[in-house]
Design a protein that fits this description.
By secondary structure, the protein is α/β, with parallel strands linked by helices. About 35% of the residues lie in helices and about 20% in strands. The chain has a single domain, classed as HUPs (Rossmann fold, 3-Layer(aba) Sandwich). Keywords: Nucleotidyltransferase, Transferase.
């Protein structure tokens, strides 16, 4: 078991596959740093054409603090001790400043499910970071995604079974489902045009 590890993602909506990834990473290190990518898309927008979800508000409806609080609640609910994890900004789209945000001696745990994942691994490797792949799957094997959950929320379909119970409660308590529905409508072209 290593001393420090890092797992990262947008977590735009935190779901059970994210939790599987985070818990697998935590099992490999004493302290897990959870990096939130695109902490603010106006300051840290996507630069890579492979990062297809890193530029619009529709794909990034949750603020940094909302994602932070959801991660915190879910990890504690899953039994991870508070002193064993930290939640940090992780501006992967701006590698020239990324190392200012993270411990340089940590192992980066990743899942590889597509071209953007491979590009992030390349970025980290070029920065001299040690990367360990936890799961490698095709897009079809990936399972539920945040994009799909946001679509389900927008279409008022049942989605609660795909997220930790604390996330479901948080989204409803803070009215985030209404924001997701509004953004879906704003960014969906009219069929009449």
């Amino acid at each position: 078991m290593t001393d420090k590890g890092i797992a990262h993602g947008r977590f735009q909506v935190l779901h059970l596959k994210h939790m599987e990834y985070l818990l697998a990473a935590k099992m490999r290190c004493q302290k897990l740093y959870i990096g939130i990518t695109h902490p603010d898309i106006s300051v840290y927008p996507a630069r890579s054409s492979l990062d297809i979800h890193g530029t619009t508000k529709r794909d990034n409806p949750l603020t940094y603090i909302e994602r932070y609080e959801m991660l915190l609640d879910a990890l504690l609910d899953f039994g991870v001790k508070r002193e064993e994890f930290e939640i940090i900004p992780f501006p992967i789209s701006h590698p020239e400043i990324l190392m200012e945000y993270i411990p340089s001696d940590a192992v980066h745990y990743m899942n590889l499910c597509g071209a953007w994942d491979e590009d992030r691994r390349r970025i980290l490797s070029e920065l001299g970071a040690k990367v360990e792949v936890l799961f490698q799957k095709s897009e079809e094997e990936k399972g539920i995604t945040s994009s799909r959950i946001r679509e389900m929320i927008a279409d008022e379909e049942a989605w609660e079974m795909y997220v930790p119970k604390t996330v479901y409660a948080y989204i409803l308590t803070h009215g985030i489902e209404k924001r997701i529905q509004q953004l879906q409508y704003i960014y969906t072209p009219s069929l009449e045009q």
